Amino acid sequence: MALVFAVSLAGAVHADNSLDPATAMASACSSCHSAHSVSSDAEGPGSLAALTANEIEQALLAFRSGERVGTLMNRLARGYSDDEITAMARVLTKQ
Ligand code: HEC
């Protein structure tokens, strides 16, 4: 179920041609990681704004390899290549 969600989410953002691919992919992150709050609530994931590009990149690589255990970031991270992870981390820390 979560895998299906992640795949369809990736498909949906790839279909949006009005943004460059990295920005479109990164926009999918904000549905769970709100852009401005430090932490939306105790249960949910925090904002990515407090992290550096390198921290986001390392976290995604660790989730993808299974080195870091999560509830759904592991499945989500598996949908992205090394280059896509690097590009998204840059976009997410640009603003
Ligand atoms: C469906 C909700 C959801 C989406 C979409 C999502 N995340 Fe997450 N994220 C989480 C949750 C929940 C965690 C906490 C770890 C876990 O349980 O998997 C997390 C954790 C993280 C962490 C670690 C944060 C920290 O403080 O160490 C990073 C980095 C991260 N996500 C990046 C991203 C990026 C980049 C994207 C977009 C590709 C993204 N997330 C999309 C839910 C989501």
Automatic annotation (TrEMBL):
InterPro entries: Cyt_c-like_dom, Cyt_c-like_dom_sf
GO molecular function: electron transfer activity; heme binding; metal ion binding
Start and end residues of each Cytochrome c domain: 15-95
PROSITE patterns from the UniProt entry: CYTC
Keywords in alphabetical order: Heme, Iron, Metal-binding
Top-rank lineage group of the source organism: Bacteria
UniProt protein name: Cytochrome c domain-containing protein
Organism lineage: Bacteria, Pseudomonadati, Pseudomonadota, Gammaproteobacteria, Cellvibrionales
